[in-house]
Design a protein that fits this description.
heterodimer, A: 345 residues, alpha/beta, six-stranded mixed beta sheet, four-stranded antiparallel beta sheet, B: 286 residues, mainly alpha, 71% helix, 0% strand, elongated
Amino acid sequence: MPGAIYAEGLVKTFGDVRALDGVDLDVPEATVLGLLGPNGAGKTTAVRVLTTLLRPDSGRAVVAGIDVLKHPNEVRRSIGLSGQFAAVDEYLTGRENLQMVGQLYQMSSKAAKARAAELLERFHLADAADRTAKTYSGGMRRRLDLAAALVVRPPVMFMDEPTTGLDPRNRQQLWDVIQELVAGGTTLLLTTQYLEEADHLAHDICVVDHGKVIARGTSDQLKAQTGGERVEVVVHERDHMAEARTVLAGFGKGETTVEEHTRKLTVPVTGGAKLLAEVIRELDGRGIEIDDIGLRRPTLDDVFISLTGHAAQPADAAAGDAPPTGAEPADAKGRKGQARKEAVK
Amino acid sequence: MSATTSPAPQLAAPRPRGGIVQSAKDSLVIAKRNLIRMSRIPEMIIFGVIQPVMFVVLFSYVFGGSISVGGSTSPAAYREFLMAGIFAQTVTFATAGAGAGIADDMHKGLIDRFRSLPMARGAVLTGRTLADLVQTTLTVIVLAVVALIVGWRTHENLGKVLAGFGLLLLLGYAFSWIGALIGLSVRTPEAATSGGLIWLFPLTFISNAFVPSDNMPAFLRHIAEWNPFSATVQAARELFGNLPPGYPEPTAWPMQHAVLASVLWSVLIIMAFRTFAVRKYRSATA
């Protein structure tokens, strides 16, 4: 039986661009699917098709058991959409916005009023309820937008980059709401550029690029696909790099990569923390002073790069990285990706 | 944000009733929303009133003495002649309001939200045009008071005068559907404002609104006589009793049957542009 969100062979072209190039999705009830990809990968187009805003050129989609192309208005009763922009009327108060949405969901005006009050309370907007949304902060507008998507407690929710532009505190709050919703039985499709977000929220992840799903699975499955753990060492003295490399080669299960300017060496390993302790002892025994050492699990950024050959985020973010030495290209990019992710944190 | 968990049972929205009842109800919800918006941006309403008032003053005092209507060059005669033209021009400015409002909704993602709701498909546009009609009506009332102050008078019974205003507002409503289509077709509210206005200038000037069309070159005169805008101006003049005594008998059909022509043009514009606009709305992409 297909899940709460099901799509088969979705194709949508805009001129020469194949925004969706045969996308299949299947999201079981009360789970979160993370649609992960860079800008222009087709994430938003997929959401627009599934929320009845855009007709695909071909393919089939079923949401909450209803055919999206045949019965769009029936689908609309069962979904909530929170888009990339906080789609609220800024000249209306928070309360007026929610009441309007409730009425347009065909609730009676009394029911819409009661539900608006409930949501304002729940999203910590009660104090601002009768101020125009124009006076709200970015985080408050996002919360109001999400509240608007939840007016009818829809069984299926779509959120298109819900936390883009939010500060960490607001992002965490939104994550809490999302987890609460899913615990309550809501099925959610979430698009994001933040690998951390997909990792944190999604049961299953589809990596999309150029309109195609290029990988799917749980976060752990995807990480496993990229290979296991690595030991990363930053030595204090440049002169010690050669010797450190020899040490690591003795423990490693693959080629050691070296970044001269940061004095960082990375080697794939198996054996986890126990092995890490051995590496430290060995380096210490040889008098090699280290600034930093750690066991790194692959990040979703690494997954993305190993799948697509390019970073999930715009290339200019990595412009500061000098060309690595002694590494094959894919690996080199992998490390760049990781450096960037740490910067994002 | 975790204090109260919403109850587990998932409820889809009530089944839409569909049909004309839902359509009317949804349109009113949207109209109310737009009226609340307008009331919170009073400067828009104020500018909407200042412009036509300025036109009344400029035309009647600057051009008033030089334009001959029906053989008379008295400023008072011109002022009476002019008012129907100013009213008609004022109501057509609703085009720009509707266009800018809808373009703004597109730009801010509100149209996407509305399109994802189980609401009647024409309601977002109908609601907007109805709200514009309310605003236009208020503007016309203020303008009529100003016109009375500067000496404009009607010479027909109240029923006819009200019918004249009715035709003017119907024209304004029709034009707001053109505005809706413009708003859905451009990328920014700014483009909708200027795009909603420029074409109104030739449309309102190549007409009988400010000067009698009889003195125009034959080519322009034909355009002016068949201009939908002229029909309403002529009809309003007839119904207000503002046609000066010596005004030549019209020869073109829409000028001879101005009231009928005005209604026909407005209804035709509404039918055509409503169809185009709703179709465009259904496939709108922000």
